[in-house]
Specification:
By secondary structure, the chain is of the alpha+beta class. Helix content is 25%, strand content 39%. Catalyzes the oxidation of uric acid to 5-hydroxyisourate, which is further processed to form (S)-allantoin.
Length: 284
C-alpha cells in the first residue's frame, strides 16, 4: 500500500539565481506482517498521509540533487526508520521545466515547460537486500520524414498493407533501463548520455540520416547503442508506439500531392517493444 501522485515544486535559491524541480512521487510499502489485512489490526500501518509528509520533508531537508538520489533517500528513510517495513518502492517523475533563455542569455528565475520527454526513475529495496535503481524517459515524440521503409514482410490473404521504401517514421518512445544494484553514479550525466544515444540511433548522422527497414530495427539500434556506450546500464526496455501518416489524395482538388500533405492515422496504431540486456546480468 502507499501514496500515489504526491506532486510538488522544490525551489532552490542561490542568491538571485533560482533552480526548480517539479516532481510527482509514488511510494509503496510492504510490511513484515499482513495483520491489517487479515485481522484489521492497524498497529504497524504507517498512514499514507504520513508517507506523503515524509516525502515532502525529505524534499525540504535534502533537496533533489537528482531524481535517482531523491528516490534513494526515500527508500533509505523508510528502511532505516521503520522496522516493520519489509519492502519499499518509489517512483519519481519530473515535469520538464527548462531555464528560459533570452537572446542566448539564461534567465535567473524564469523557466519554460518543454515537452521533449519526461524523465522518471524507480528505486526499490527489500529488507536485507540490495537497493535497485531504474531510470527512463517516456512520452518522447520522434519523427524523421525519410530514410525509413517497410518491405519484404510476410503476406497472406489478409494482407492489404503495401510495401514502402520511403515513408515517415514517427512514434512516441518509452525507454526504461536498470543500473542493477545502487552505486555512486552521476545519474544526471548518464541520463543525458542515454537520451543522446536514443536521438542518435533514431535519426542517424545529421547530414544524411540512416535507413530504417522497420520500427523493430530502430528499437534494436537504440538498445545496442546505449549498451555499447553506457556501461552502467544492465538491461534496457524500449517501447515505440507508432504513428502512421497517409498521403492525402488531392486529385479532386486539381493538385498533385508528392508527400507534401499527409494525414495522421490516429487509431489503431502499431507498437514495437523489446527488452535487451547484458548476458552476465541475466546469468546472475
Amino acid at each position: 500500500y502507499g501514496k500515489n501522485t504526491i506532486k510538488f515544486l522544490r525551489l532552490h535559491r542561490e542568491g538571485k539565481k533560482h533552480f526548480v524541480k517539479e516532481v510527482e512521487v509514488c511510494t509503496h510499502l510492504r510490511l513484515t506482517s499482513p495483520q491489517e489485512y487479515l485481522e484489521g489490526n492497524n498497529s504497524l500501518v504507517i498512514p499514507t498521509d504520513t508517507i506523503k509528509n515524509i516525502v515532502l520533508v525529505l524534499a525540504k531537508k535534502n533537496g533533489i540533487p537528482s531524481l535517482e538520489q531523491f528516490a534513494i533517500d526515500i527508500c533509505n528513510h523508510f528502511m532505516t526508520t521503520f522496522c516493520q517495513v519489509a519492502y519499499v518502492k518509489t517512483y519519481v517523475q519530473e515535469v520538464p521545466w527548462q531555464r528560459l533563455h533570452e537572446n542566448g542569455v539564461p534567465h535567473i528565475h524564469s523557466f519554460i515547460c518543454v515537452p521533449d520527454g519526461i524523465r522518471f526513475c524507480e528505486a526499490e529495496q527489500c529488507r536485507n537486500g540490495p537497493l535497485v535503481i531504474f531510470a527512463g524517459i517516456k512520452d518522447l515524440k520522434l519523427m524523421k520524414t525519410t530514410q525509413s521503409g517497410f518491405e519484404g514482410f510476410y503476406k497472406n490473404e489478409h494482407t492489404t498493407l503495401p510495401e514502402r521504401h520511403d515513408r515517415i517514421l514517427c512514434g512516441e518512445l518509452f525507454c526504461k533501463w536498470s543500473y542493477g544494484e545502487c552505486k555512486d553514479f552521476d545519474f544526471d550525466c548518464i541520463w543525458n548520455k542515454i537520451r543522446e544515444c536514443i536521438l542518435e540511433a533514431f535519426s542517424g548522422p545529421p547530414d544524411c540520416g540512416e535507413y530504417s527497414p522497420s520500427y523493430q530495427k530502430t528499437v534494436n539500434c537504440i538498445q545496442m547503442l546505449v549498451l555499447s556506450k553506457v556501461s552502467q546500464v544492465q538491461v534496457i526496455e524500449v517501447v515505440l508506439n507508432n504513428t502512421f501518416y497517409n498521403v492525402l489524395d488531392m486529385k479532386n482538388l486539381g493538385l498533385t500531392n508528392d508527400k507534401e500533405v499527409l494525414i495522421p492515422v490516429e487509431a489503431p496504431y502499431g507498437s514495437c517493444a523489446c527488452t535487451l540486456g547484458r548476458k552476465k546480468f541475466f546469468e546472475a
